[in-house]
Amino acid sequence: MSILNKKITTVKMREALFIKQGTEKWKEYENKKTHNPDELAEAFIAITDDLAYAKTFYPKSNTTKYLNGLAAGFHQSIYKNKKEKTSRFVTFWRDELPLIFYQYRKQLLYSFLFFIVFVLMGVLSAKYDNNFVKLIMGDDYVNMTNDNIAKGDPFGVYKQGSSTLMFLQIAINNVKVALIFFVLGMLFSVGTLFVSLQNGIMLGSFQYYFFSKGLGWQSILVIWIHGTLEISSFIIAGAAGLILGNSLLFPKTYTRLVSLKNGARDGLKISIGIIPIILTAAFFESFVTRHTEMPVWLSISILAASLVFMIWYVILYPKHINKKTNLNKPYTDETTD
């Protein structure tokens, strides 16, 4: 017998002994129905100790997967039975949503990268096809904008009608779009990517149009007052759709049904969680963007503040709070790949 085979045999023997020594205890914990926080904490510590050992010596073993699921169950029980000092409404946006962002940071990155690619496709298409912008934005919109440019007011479209009515229309439409991003994830993520493609190409061609008219910098100062939050929310909604779709495509150690439930739950939380951002963007577009005469410093300040907030709340703060609370969920590795 080779040295490698001997080592493998030794490891298997040690794992068998480890299972024999722990089986009775694990079954007892598995059937534990107590809601006593101290008992739950004690069992959770014992299980995580065994899980840490198993991950060290048998990382790909079914035993490790079993202990991983068992520890996850205890973690959820502890979390549910923890007394909340503040309202659920506050803790959702303060703690829960940022932790979901951290858990699914890969999907957020993928959604961002896909959207950037689609925007570039829109830019290139508009650059090399003079009719592309009209095809995407419609003849009426392009003709109206051309007329506004001729009048010296290229962004006059944002000044039309009642601010309140515009706010309601934009808010309802953008919430609907965000939910479409999420729901179409059921089509194995392809539906979400298609919606991202549509919006990315539209944004790319729209932005290129103003650059081609020599209004690129001015368009950024005006459009991105609301666009920073609006486009960010669409990218996040795209991530929610990918979470849902990937739960069907890659269930990992879960059954496909359980994986789908987890993906649907977390994706829906994200979709609901970004509604305040969408409403804020709609407010900016309806009540602020129309003031195209505002000082450049004010426009840059609003745009920069929006961008800094999104980077902080979606990327930096989730990382900080995850580290602060030491919330290293045993099942995180199962859901973030």
Automatic annotation (TrEMBL):
<feature type="transmembrane region" description="Helical">
    <location>
        <begin position="208"/>
        <end position="225"/>
    </location>
</feature>
<feature type="transmembrane region" description="Helical">
    <location>
        <begin position="231"/>
        <end position="250"/>
    </location>
</feature>
<dbReference type="Pfam" id="PF01944">
    <property type="entry name" value="SpoIIM"/>
</dbReference>
<feature type="transmembrane region" description="Helical">
    <location>
        <begin position="270"/>
        <end position="288"/>
    </location>
</feature>
<dbReference type="InterPro" id="IPR002798">
    <property type="entry name" value="SpoIIM-like"/>
</dbReference>
<keyword id="KW-0812">Transmembrane</keyword>
<feature type="transmembrane region" description="Helical">
    <location>
        <begin position="177"/>
        <end position="196"/>
    </location>
</feature>
<feature type="transmembrane region" description="Helical">
    <location>
        <begin position="294"/>
        <end position="316"/>
    </location>
</feature>
<keyword id="KW-1133">Transmembrane helix</keyword>
<protein>
    <submittedName>
        <fullName>Stage II sporulation protein M</fullName>
    </submittedName>
</protein>
<keyword id="KW-0472">Membrane</keyword>
<feature type="transmembrane region" description="Helical">
    <location>
        <begin position="108"/>
        <end position="128"/>
    </location>
</feature>
